[in-house]
C-alpha cells in the first residue's frame, strides 16, 4: 500500500516527559521545576528496599520517597513516630543502590530535625553522605521554615510536607482531613507559601480538601505532590504497599484516597501456599531442581 503523505511526520517521542523519560542520568530538582512549567503531572511512590525500588525505577517512576511510613510498612510499628534516622539511612542506601534514574528523597524522621536548623542539617547531611540521597523531606510548614532554609543554603534540596503530618499523630488525635474552615485554610496557605519562600523545591499536601489543594497548586511556583489532596496537584504520591494491594489495613478498611492497582497481598500469599503445598506433598523439589 502506497501512502502519499507529503512528508513523514517526525517520530514523536512516546513520552517526552519525566515519567518514562529515557535518559539514564538521575532526575533532578530542575527537571521537576521544568515539568511544572510544562504543566506535566508526575507520579511518586515510596520504596524501602533495593529490589522494589529497581522495579519502580524500571517502570519510569521519576521520584522515589524512602518514607518514614517504613514504620508502618517495613518495620511493623503502628505509626511513623518510632522510626529512627539510622533506619531511614539504611533503607535509603538500599533504594539508592537499587536505582539508576529516580531521584531518591529520604524522610527526616520524628526527632531528627525538631530541635532546630542545626540538628536538621546534621541529620540531612548524614542521609546525603551515608545513603547518597538526592534530597530530604521534612514535615511542617511555617514551623519548619528555618530548618528548610538552612538545608537549602547548605546545598541539600528539600521537599516540604504540609496538611496532615503523621509525625504529629498524637497532637492531631488521628488522621483528620486538613484545611477545613476559613482559619485552617488560611493557615495551610501560609504554610505552603512559607516552605516555598524558604527554598523547598516541592511540597507534599497530605489529606487536604481538593478545593484547597487546587488553590495552593495554582498559587505556588513549586510543584505540589498530593496524597488525599484531590486531582489538581502537580504530582501524586502513594505508599507503594497501598498502591499495590499489599497493605493489611486495620479493620480491613483502607483510607478513602487509596486506590489499589494490584493484589500483591493475595498473590504473594498464594505463591507461599503453593510452595508450602509442594514441599509437604513432595512435589518440590522435582528432578529438574536436583543435582547429581
Ligand atoms: N500504609 C500507609 N499508608 C499511608 O498513606 C500512611 C501510612 N501508612 N503511615 C503514615 C501515614 C498515616 N496516613 C493516614 C492514615 C489514615 C488515614 C485515614 O484513615 N484517613 C481517613 C480520613 C479521616 C477523616 O475523614 O477525617 C480516610 O478515610 O481517608 C489517612 C492517612 C498516611 N500515611
Ligand atoms: C506518604 C508520604 C508523603 C510520606 O511521608 C511517607 O510515606 O512517609
Ligand atoms: Mg512520611
UniProtKB/TrEMBL annotation:
<feature type="binding site">
    <location>
        <position position="107"/>
    </location>
    <ligand>
        <name>Mg(2+)</name>
    </ligand>
</feature>
<feature type="binding site">
    <location>
        <position position="139"/>
    </location>
    <ligand>
        <name>Mg(2+)</name>
    </ligand>
</feature>
<feature type="region of interest" description="Disordered">
    <location>
        <begin position="1"/>
        <end position="23"/>
    </location>
</feature>
<dbReference type="GO" id="GO:0003864">
    <property type="term" value="F:3-methyl-2-oxobutanoate hydroxymethyltransferase activity"/>
</dbReference>
<feature type="binding site">
    <location>
        <position position="137"/>
    </location>
    <ligand>
        <name>3-methyl-2-oxobutanoate</name>
    </ligand>
</feature>
<keyword id="KW-0963">Cytoplasm</keyword>
<comment type="similarity">
    <text>Belongs to the PanB family.</text>
</comment>
<dbReference type="InterPro" id="IPR040442">
    <property type="entry name" value="Pyrv_kinase-like_dom_sf"/>
</dbReference>
<feature type="active site" description="Proton acceptor">
    <location>
        <position position="206"/>
    </location>
</feature>
<comment type="pathway">
    <text>Cofactor biosynthesis; (R)-pantothenate biosynthesis; (R)-pantoate from 3-methyl-2-oxobutanoate: step 1/2.</text>
</comment>
<comment type="subunit">
    <text>Homodecamer; pentamer of dimers.</text>
</comment>
<keyword id="KW-0566">Pantothenate biosynthesis</keyword>
<feature type="binding site">
    <location>
        <position position="68"/>
    </location>
    <ligand>
        <name>Mg(2+)</name>
    </ligand>
</feature>
<dbReference type="InterPro" id="IPR015813">
    <property type="entry name" value="Pyrv/PenolPyrv_kinase-like_dom"/>
</dbReference>
<comment type="function">
    <text>Catalyzes the reversible reaction in which hydroxymethyl group from 5,10-methylenetetrahydrofolate is transferred onto alpha-ketoisovalerate to form ketopantoate.</text>
</comment>
<feature type="binding site">
    <location>
        <begin position="68"/>
        <end position="69"/>
    </location>
    <ligand>
        <name>3-methyl-2-oxobutanoate</name>
    </ligand>
</feature>
<keyword id="KW-0479">Metal-binding</keyword>
<protein>
    <recommendedName>
        <fullName>3-methyl-2-oxobutanoate hydroxymethyltransferase</fullName>
        <ecNumber>2.1.2.11</ecNumber>
    </recommendedName>
</protein>
<dbReference type="InterPro" id="IPR003700">
    <property type="entry name" value="Pantoate_hydroxy_MeTrfase"/>
</dbReference>
<dbReference type="Pfam" id="PF02548">
    <property type="entry name" value="Pantoate_transf"/>
</dbReference>
<keyword id="KW-0808">Transferase</keyword>
<keyword id="KW-0460">Magnesium</keyword>
<feature type="binding site">
    <location>
        <position position="107"/>
    </location>
    <ligand>
        <name>3-methyl-2-oxobutanoate</name>
    </ligand>
</feature>
